[in-house]
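On clarity, I found the account of how folds are encoded harder to follow than it need be. Since the whole study asks how a given chain folds, the encoding of that fold should be made plain. The format is easy to grasp once an entry is in front of the reader. For illustration, here is how one protein appears when written out as sequence plus structure tokens.
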Amino acid sequence: MPDALTRTIDRITDTVGAAARALSLLLVAVVAADVALRYFFNYSNTALRELEWHAFAALFLLGGAYALRHDDHVRVDVLYQRFSPRTRALINVLGCLLFLFPGCWLVIKTSIPFVKFSWAMHEVSPDPGGLPARWLAKALIPAGFGLLALQGVSFLLANLRVLAGRGPSGAGR
């Protein structure tokens, strides 16, 4: 069962990661358009600028789980890379239990009222010409951290298999 669960979670993460990759291309296009409009045509557009930061936020919130899945997240590797696979797996398990899951839970718990309030008032940009549906961007906060926690379950299971002597030595890779 854990192997099937891990594969399912990893598949979900890879699907969301593919969407985040596409979003990164959209972000590059939007920023390029904004820069070209400002510098060549002396034209500024509030919605375009807001779309930049909405896309940037979505990219990072949705890409966090993907980074964990492919071991592309930030870590201090000075000592970690020198440890045995079992020691690294133990560090990863402790990191999940002590930092990843509590951190995700804290962000989700504190952001849900924030999102509910935004949704209830149908929050839009306060700037003239800004984007509608600001609540949608805010809803990505608990969604992104939920995806990160879900991928953390897969990461935890893979590292527990290494500790049990039943998994590849590169859990998390």
Observations:
- The chain has one domain: 2-163.
- Helices lie at 2-41, 46-69, 77-80, 85-120, 134-163.
- The mean pLDDT is 91.
